Amino acid sequence: MNLPLTVLVLCTGNSARSILGEALFNHLGRGRFRAYSAGSQPTGHVHPLALRTLAAHGLASEGYVSKSWSTFAAADAPSIDIVITVCSSAAGEACPIWRGQPLRGHWGVDDPAAARGSEVDRLAAFERAYALLRARVEALTALPVETMDAPALEQALREIGTR
């Protein structure tokens, strides 16, 4: 696999989970991964608690935009090596054709943007999503992806998604 690997993190709204995943890959990937995020039905805004969660963990919390996954099907879009869905809705939808031949993985995460209750309850939902995504991104970035073939890497993506 040629580095950096380009990762596209997908969910439906592209306001919370996929934004957290994008930030984590770009932070923890240390130049070996370049991540983007998108949604099948983007909300048009990034959830403020997603940005607050990133900032609380010392990650960049500026410059994120909720965008459609069709952005990455355009002729001038970056070639995608890995597509990771973080919600069941996006995992089950017919995706656009991406540049490249991306490997696919599903890392289901409960939607923190759907959390109800007090601000403390909603922040806790974002923390749970962040922690789960961080553990999975750390598991992938710890692998010797430079020497793995595509079937082995795709199997690893599936296994990480079940943790």
Automatic annotation (TrEMBL):
CDD domains assigned to the protein according to its UniProt record, in alphabetical order: LMWP_ArsC
Keywords assigned by UniProt, alphabetized: Arsenical resistance
InterPro entries named among the record's database cross-references: Ptyr_pPase, Ptyr_pPase_sf
SUPFAM superfamilies the record matches: Phosphotyrosine protein phosphatases I
UniProt GO BP: response to arsenic-containing substance
Phosphotyrosine protein phosphatase I domain segment(s): 5-143
Matching Pfam families: LMWPc
Name assigned to this protein: Protein-tyrosine-phosphatase
Organism: Gulbenkiania indica
Taxonomic placement: Bacteria, Pseudomonadati, Pseudomonadota, Betaproteobacteria, Neisseriales
